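Hi everyone, sorry if this is the wrong subforum. Our group has a chain we'd like a structural model of before ordering constructs, and none of us has done structure prediction before. Sequence below.
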Amino acid sequence: MKILVNCALPYANGPLHPGHIAGAYLNADIFVRYQRMRGNNVMFVSGSDEHGTPITITAEKEKVDPYVISSRFHEEHLETFRNLDINFDIFSRTTYPEHSETVKEFFMHFYRNGLLKERMMVSPFCPTDGRFMPDRYIEGTCPYCGYTQARGDQCDNCGRTLDPQELIDPRCILHGTAPEFRETKHLFFQLEEFQEKLLEWLDTKTFWKPNVMAFTRNFIKSGLKERPITRDIGWGVRVPVEGYEDKRIYVWFEALIGYVSGARKYSRETGQDDYWKDFYFNPEVKNYYFMGKDNIPFHTIIWPAMLMAMGKYNLPYLVTANEYMNFKGMKFSKSRGIGYTVNEILKLVDRDYLRFYIAFNLPEGGDSDFSLEDLQNRVNTELIDKYGNLVHRITSFVVNSQIAPELNMEIMDESDRTILSQAAEAIANFSHHVEAVEIKKALSSWLELVRQSNSYFNDSAPWSLKKTDPVRCSHKLHISLYLIQALSAMAYPFIPSSSASMLTAMGSRKFRENGINWDLTELAGSEFTPVRSDPPFRKLDIIKGNPNFMDLKIGEIVEVKNHPSADRLYIIRVNLGYRSAQVVAGLRQHYSPDQLLGRKIIMVDNLKWSKIRGEESQGMLLAADDGKTVSLLSPMDTAVKPGTPVKIGDYEYNTSGKIDIDKLKEAKLHMEEVDGTRRAVAVLDNEILPLNASGTLFSTYEAVSSGATVR
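Answer:
Right subforum, don't worry. Here is the predicted structure as tokens:
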């Protein structure tokens, strides 16, 4: 049976983190490995989404061609997937000629059939550059939450979708100038013409997950509207019609076609030019799409409508979307210093450990949380203590006892029948859940069989039977080996390298002769000659000590007075939520009292109290100083409450007692610029880590240079 599995194309503008992997890629790889074990012919496709404004923005800042940026991250993504044992048949690129060719076929079919209409729309125009600017080139203050670095398409702080015209004090991110809003012509896809067909098709998808169906129907409820299919940008697939030479095809349209262009390229590379058609035009072939929840409407509404418009393509059989995997309650963000990339984690743990933990923690029914502490705990207790130790105990006992395992149906007792029945049920449940793309439930079925198999081996007590009943001992060992063979086969889609090592250690003849396949879950024909081997897993011990000695708190300035004995000092009253503190600060040359009142700042709350020119100072306010400008650190999200602890990277305050100024200097606090955002960082254990509180970073209202000292 042929099956097509498409994974959402990751955007080639940054490294992959566990949230990406949990959203689409690991569950797809698990599903594909399982289907191939069952003997099915699977085409597994993904690739880099290389067009769009985030890439061009980075390229303009680095003064390089956008292709340089997308190539950099395409290669990094390939490396990440290889490191994690996620193996696509093709990981394509939207800059390949095959992609442009396929996109233009779709586009011209729509154009000739009257599905594209020309319209005028208002877009931001930069008078400095003399060109229209895509929405992401515009920043300003969010009208909903007041975040000062909201983008023209979305506010990263409150999550609201925005239009550049909604921003307060909008500005071009390249020049800082206010944009003009002018009319420009574009072609629009008549999506609304497919509303009824889409609703009829969706009525047949009674087996889809509730989150996908609810999101889709809510999107359609207010009525589908035409969507612009072209945009004013120089990077992307060219528009193949006259009068649009300076525009490109919108990335939302052409990136989806990357599934087809990737399949076509794979077919050409394998010498079967028309092979891809078997997967897209044969109605018997099921097409599966994996993605994170933010991609749902593109795959349940827009892509099906595009396929309907083409007339002969299979529509998606199943669209499955996971919720978000967060990092300790916050969205992963490399630029904001929240969490780790996959490659960073793989420097600490084996890839199968990370695969197991993400699968154990998949956000299938709701958002989940990632932490290294939980990863270590789950791997050590669930994978190593329960499964790894079971395999090692059984294989070691057989090798050391020199008893040949042999099944004897004549002495089958109730405990044997019970465990074999439990195994059959677990295997059936496992298969059902994987087929339904309920990966987390499948792993739960596997873990339950691990528990039952441990109980069976312990209750069988072969160490006692060895002396009293060697025939029964041999029989029990055979069943025990079959159980870990079945468990290792079931585990293969989750932990492929470790599973193969387990099957080698137990001397499975089926595995030796036929490799990994679903026949390994069958008792019949199973034979074993275990070999002496080391324990299959090593326990994780990756959690480092916490080096953060700074008790930093969010404070709000509520009172400012001139120091009676010093013309450069203020006496400032700070609300810390749980108490009020007095601080003496040398800010009179830099701020007026009105500029300070109501301002959110960071206060060092465990600094030794001192008297400065006769007035008590109970802490210190942190400010950046580049030699020209002094500017207080302030949270980017001004809604954060006084008293909120400020972390250094992932480290919370982890000591007691007071520190002095010399100790504070050890942290080497300074300003750093990442992706155009200035943020405050500290150096702990030779790591540069951002200051953060409740998901927000800290910057300065006044411009200071990167590298400015924070004191």
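For your construct planning: The chain has four domains: 2-105+249-343, 115-231, 371-521, 552-710. The two ends are 66 Å apart (CA to CA).
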